[in-house]
Design a protein that fits this description.
Layout lengths: L12 E9 L4 E11 L2 E10 L6 H14 L10 E5 L6 E5 L6 H8 L5
Antiparallel strand pairs: 1-2, 2-3, 3-5, 4-5
Enzyme class: transferase
Membrane topology: Single-pass type I membrane protein
Main location: membrane
Length: 113
Amino acid sequence: YVPDEWEVAREKITMSRELGQGSFGMVYEGVAKGVVKDEPETRVAIKTVNEAASMRERIEFLNEASVMKEFNCHHVVRLLGVVSQGQPTLVIMELMTRGDLKSYLRSLRPEME
């Protein structure tokens, strides 16, 4: 992985609380400085890769971020940046304030009688 215009300095990211377990590691809520134009600070989801992850898993984690760089659709969660320098590697995503889609849809489902 070669750092590019998506690279964010680690000191611009602050993690605040765990949101849950992702495919590669924990996902946290946090704040990122300067990742969205005209917003000094943005609430974000921060995906991490497990410290015990193999090199292959780390590469897959970064490949997932690389694929997300190509998406620009309001129906898809946006990639906001990547922190590839140092450990752990971080993928900075748009925060879905109502949680994941599956849980949100289930909360709207009428209760069974």
